[in-house]
Amino acid sequence: MKLGQTIRRRPTPPAQQVAALEARLGCPVLARVYATRGVVADEIGYATERLLPPHSLLGIDAATRLAARVLTGGGRLLVAADYDADGATGCALAVRGLRALGAAAVDYLVPSRFTTGYGLSLEVAEAALARRPDLLITVDNGIASLDGIARLRAAGVPVIVTDHHLPGERLPPADAIVNPRLPGDGFASKHLAGVGVMFYLLLALRARLRADGWFGGGRPEPNLARLLDLVALGTVADVVPLDYNNRLLVAQGLARLNAGGGQPGVRALLSLAPQRTQVTAGDLAFRAGPRLNAAGRMDDMSLGIECLLTDDPSAAADMAAQLDALNQDRRAVEAQMQAQATALTRALPDPLPAALCLHDADWHPGVIGIIAARLRERHGRPAVAFAPAEDGRWRGSARSLPGVHIRDALAAVAARQPGLIEKFGGHAMAAGLTLAGEHLPAFAAALADAVLEQTGGVLPEDALLSDGALDPALLTLDLAERLHGAGPWGQGFAAPLFDDEFELREARMVGADHLRLLLAPPAGGEAVAAIAWRAAALREQLGSHLRVAYRPQVNAWRGERQLQLLVEGLAPV
User: How many other CB atoms sit within 10 Å of the CB of residue 486?
Assistant: First the structure.
């Protein structure tokens, strides 16, 4: 957090739309919040029958036809996953779903961040061939794996690609590709996570098997909805935009967890933090997701996948504890790298360039994505953090801001300076790339130029979007409870954020680098407790009056529930 971050108020929504929502919700504040996010009265509620149907996904008929033939013939299916939380949940979903549909033999393969790198490379394809599969199905990768898939096809192994990353100019030579971002695809939601694409493949495969008379006679038709906690976790952890279809998937997954269902591994990951009465999308994002991701960042994602696959609660708890230990290691490494990144940033010119590109020979390749995200958050610029890779190459992880499509920026750099980037991929807000070490300075300059082209020559700005001021009389635990339960909130569907002036009564440091504040409305009224994460460095700079951007939240501690303001932005008055 920095002092003086820009806070902008969202445009006033149409009064008629707010009135229609208020009539359904009975809460003027929530009606205003929903309206500014484009919600209409018909979109209130997340019933499963409102889920978009699978048939409009391009390639899904060919994929299910092939998968059904191999599955009903008793063939061996191999799932090739990615090593992040989206890939791990998608892999566990695929293995559990295919087994439930009656597959006789299902195995999985996940590459290593440290040896094979991302995707279905030639090396991973050779490892897959050693398993002698009759069909390989990718999850959360494959759209850029032209060589690996060509090798599998040449060896006689058919391949189904399920992915959600943006395709390049050439598509892989797979037997079928299911990706809502394919040119010509008619699926209305373009923001499915990789685990969401796999869920749709399973839905369509079940429908085909049902039509073929596969179920019955001792083979029951499975209820795939019982796996939606995996879809919810992968969707939230991958930070894809929560459009209505994704919110529905997440809401249904959360409903099953809150009803006592869900996979033992997901429940074990959630249980590592203090228990709450209701599991929320925030719990998936900040409790389960980082611990699951730690396996792929620090070691081998097989541990995370096995945690999600086991039906034994005791084994799940043991593996979740191992994942928690890896996450502690990750946090220690991150703290050291953040200090180094801060020192490197101080050496940059003022104002900072339009894009930040930092590297260090000692940086951990599994943590550079987090460092890029922290740089973006602190400095309001798209950022790329690089760690050394093999043969003099450097591998980078990029994070961006609304208004700057980072993959398009990389594509522009690659088009203007062929050979500068060896390979890249990703989407609007996050991307990965590899380049030779001698190209680092030229790449930094070229990326800054590409970003400025997208912003019309104006330096990017990470402004907070506020829902406006809130009458101090409405700052109550009841309102916080109501807003808290009106999610799922997340990427592209931000939790309510308000801003106003406050008198600062107290600011004291808590934990490693957080601030606990006591804020009072300037016109009088009861002071409210607030927490500002990672803001301790600002303590001596705070004046007696501040403009504060905050989210009302429920602070549950030792059986008591109190209103607390989560501070997202501070500016002097």
Answer: 18
96-139 pLDDT per residue, tens: 999 999 999 999 999 988 877 778 999 999 999 999 999 999 99
pLDDT recorded at residue 425: 82
Give the residue from 182, 212, 233, 189 showing the smallest Cα distance to 53: 189
CA distance readout (Å), 340 to 170, 333, 344, 346 = 39, 11, 6, 10
Task: Tabulate helix, strand, coil % of the chain (nearest 5).
Answer: 45, 20, 35
Q: What are phi and psi of 128, to 5 degrees?
A: -65, -40
- Rounded CA-CA distance 291/423 in Å is 29
**Is 39 in a helix, a strand, or coil?**
coil
Q: Which amino acid is at 516?
A: R
Q: CA dist 32 to 28, 67, 465, 489, Å? A: 6, 46, 14, 15
Global confidence as pTM: 0.90
Dist CA 382 CA 453 (whole Å)? 13
Specify the DSSP element, H or E, that contains 355: none
368-379 and 313-346 helices, crossing angle to 10°: 50
pLDDT in tens, 526-567: 899 999 998 888 888 888 999 999 999 998 877 788 999 999
Q: Which residues pair with 518 in a beta bridge?
A: 506, 529
The structure tokens listed for 348 are: 């940059």
Mean pLDDT by 10 residues, the chain (573 residues): 82 94 95 95 90 96 98 98 95 98 97 82 96 97 94 98 91 97 94 97 98 94 98 95 96 96 97 80 94 93 97 98 96 94 92 95 94 90 94 93 89 91 86 94 96 88 88 93 92 93 93 91 88 89 92 85 93 86
Instruction: Quote the tokens at residue 61.
Output: 């008929």
CB atoms near residue 343 (< 10 Å)? 11
Dihedral sign (CA 9, 13, 15, 21)? negative
Strands 514-520 and 545-557: unpaired
By the 10 Å C-beta count (0-12 exposed, 13-18 middle, 19+ buried), 227 is classed as buried
All residues at 6 or more sequence positions from 337 whose CB lies less than 8 Å from its CB, including other chains: 360, 363, 364, 367, 368, 371, 385
Matching residue, tokens 């795939």: 224
CA distance to 239, 307, 323, per residue, from 265 (Å): 21, 5, 11
Which of 130, 147, 115 has the alpha carbon at shortest distance from 78?
130
**C-beta separation of 375 from 363 below 8 A:** no
**Contact in structure between 39 and 21 (CB atoms under 8 Å):** yes
Name which of 220, 225, 260 is nearest 100 in CA terms.
Answer: 220
Residue 176 to residue 493: CA distance in whole angstroms: 32
Q: For residues 507 and 529, what is the distance between their CA atoms, to the nearest angstrom?
A: 10
